[in-house]
Amino acid sequence: MLFLRIVVFIIFVGLSTFSIAQKATYIANSGVFVEVGNTKILIDALFTNGLRRFSTPNDSKLAAMTTGKSPYNNLSLALITHAHQDHCDPSQLSKLLLNQKTLNCLTTPQVLDSIEAVMDDYESIHDRTLTFPISRGWRTYSKEGLSIKAAYARHAGKINAKVQDIIFIADMEGKKVLHLGDADMDPNRFDELKLQYEDLDIAFVPFWYMTSFYGAEVIHKYIKAKKIIAVHFPLNGSKLSLEKINKFLPEVMVFQNPGQTVSF
Question: Which residue has the higher pLDDT, 34 or 11?
């Protein structure tokens, strides 16, 4: 009888663990699909133009996401970090929101402007396209099982000085997920946001952070996630870049092939 109880307990624990399993799936470029329990979010996943340098979702993947085909049904939230074509296609995003009638999107004012520009009936989804005033510090969005902290950052590169970029921390049923978009490596900004105290479970970080000692120090000092995933890696990314990543942050996983998954 005791043996039977032990077996039942082991099975129960195993099933409980499975039911709250969490994973992230690579869509393309910096786009990811993250699942924790019943909470599901898409981040920078809906775009069609990789600028001839970066991977893009294929037509069947885009159709599955925008129509809510499993596993993209019952999404909790869509997040878009900035309005660049290799992160966001406003037409695809509008399809997603038109098809998934209760879904909200949290993004920048520039992305909202781009959606409105391609839609004749933008008012039909206006109440579900959300943003925060451009200001310093964190702002919070919450719903059942999900809390989002969002803060504006400078986009990397002087040429992108006017591009609004949002850093997101998604607290998904107790698991913390960071996505930097294309934020620059300004340690003063990270220190201001107190990112190093967030106890992150997984972080999606542009690969170029990991190709220098300076960027690696930013990750070690401020991001400190249990798992670091490099994203935005070019289709023809150099072997030298991978060697540098392995040198400075050998524990990092590089997302290169759409469909890659990682548990965390």
Answer: 34
CA 156 to chain centre: 17
**For position 1, what pLDDT does the model report?**
55
* C-beta separation of 91 from 84 below 8 A: no
Mean pLDDT of 111-138: 96
Measure the CA–CA gap between 179 and 165, rounded to whole angstroms. 11
CB 82 within 8 A of CB 182: yes
Whether the CB-CB separation of 182 and 155 falls below 8 Å is answered with: yes
Phi, psi of 99 (to 5 degrees): -80, -35
Whether the link from the prior residue into 71 is cis, omega within 30° of 0, is yes
Is residue 80 helix, strand or coil?
A: coil
DSSP SS3 for 261: strand
CA distances from residue 57 to 7, 48, 162, 259 in whole angstroms, order as listed: 44, 7, 27, 10
CA dist 218 → 6, 24, 178, 249 (Å): 47, 23, 14, 11
Instruction: Specify the pTM.
Output: 0.92
User: 158 — phi, psi (to 5°)?
Assistant: -60, -30
